[in-house]
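Why Phenylacetate-CoA ligase? Reviewers of the renewal asked for a concrete example.
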Amino acid sequence: MEQWSWPPRYDESYQPDPAERFWFPRRETMPAEQRDEAILARIRQVMEYAWENAPFYRRKWDEAGIHPSSIKSLADFEKVPVVRKEELRADQAENEPFGSYLAVPTSEVKHVNGTSGTTGRPTAFGISERDWRSVANAHARVMWAMGIRPDDTVLVASPLSLYWGSWGAYIGAERLGARVFPFGAGTAGQTARTVRWMRQMGVTVFYGTPSYALHLAEVARDDGLDPASLGLRKLFFSGEPGASVPSIRSRIAEAFGAQVYDSGSMAEVSPWMHLGADSDEPGVLCWQDLVYTEVCDPTGLHRVDYGSEGTPVYTTLERTSQPMIRLLSGDLTRWEAPSADRGRTYPFLPRGIYGRIDDMFTVRGENVYPSAIDDVVMAAQGYGGEHRIVISRESTMDSLAVQVEYEDAMASSLESWAAGIADRLRTVLGVGAKVVPVRQQTFDRTEFKARRVVDDRDLLRRLEGAS
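Here is what the prediction returned.
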């Protein structure tokens, strides 16, 4: 396996020939069972390293009666207790600034990223220079699989802040040898300037969130410019579901006349592109030699069979500063077995990460995921660009409504248009939803992650009155 060592060491001068499909042909195409043997050995190395250097893990495993030497198989590894995000936040509160799961001296932390803290205490990611370079090399590999090459100009369109996504895309493109254009987003009027700069700089690759790409296309059209004329040949995404949701990805691909690639898991387990597409189709590969992924039953936390749905549990195989060992994601996916037919012999998530377990809501006994609603609504002819999902209660019954923007051309047939969407939602969800058409531009557009679910018991009546 090319450049497979612990701690990781990469030849920074290495680069495949531009015509080569694989960055590391052996690592990416070897029989999955053979790779698993190397991964098991690496897991033991990572656990021994954490046992010696990260008090958080030693305490946790002591309490569970687990020692790294007892892990003789990947089945044994399933017995290692999972780590939950709330544990990491609590540990950092007690052991500031980086927690007792920091496995290097604080002086070796050279980069700080983190969460925004909008839903609680922010989590700090302390990253050593070795880990920074490992992430750069890993992301370059995955971006190479997407077909990005040194002669591309890559626009990083998400905020260059504490958000790991922007920096991960930046350093991956930089390591790959491409020209990097870190324009960012988030300032009023910035999107219009983004369009002008894209034309001026000859941008060929876009990175951001699916929501922002759709917003960018709208802004371009408002300025009288066809988004397809911008010259993009590829767009890759992270941060929210969408790039593997057929209706969303098709809207993006058609708008820009370009190929669409999904990627991304969690900032905590960066390189987050370890879930990354290698072809222009829905779904992502699990690059198991970067971050070992288990798709697990959410209750028992044991691996589910291929073909089944579960929540990913992640173990970093190249991180030394804040290793993550069996970190529970809380996301939802379904996986398929590795196939040599794909070229790269990694497990496959055909729909990518399509939701979070805690985003799921129940309406009249049916579990509903927002991404399922997004897929139906965005596929509707005449869809105006945004929508909101409203959960409310009428008397003793929960009700579901979807406010959907419509294009002007649909104004004369709104009743039948809404009824058609409602019928499709009932078929997909197994529960009825009231579809409320609203005028285009009713909802604010986002330059980052879309937030479309509103749970407000009185809001539905106000919305219907306003429409």
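The chain has two domains: 1-358, 360-466. This is the kind of structural detail the renewal will allow us to pursue systematically.
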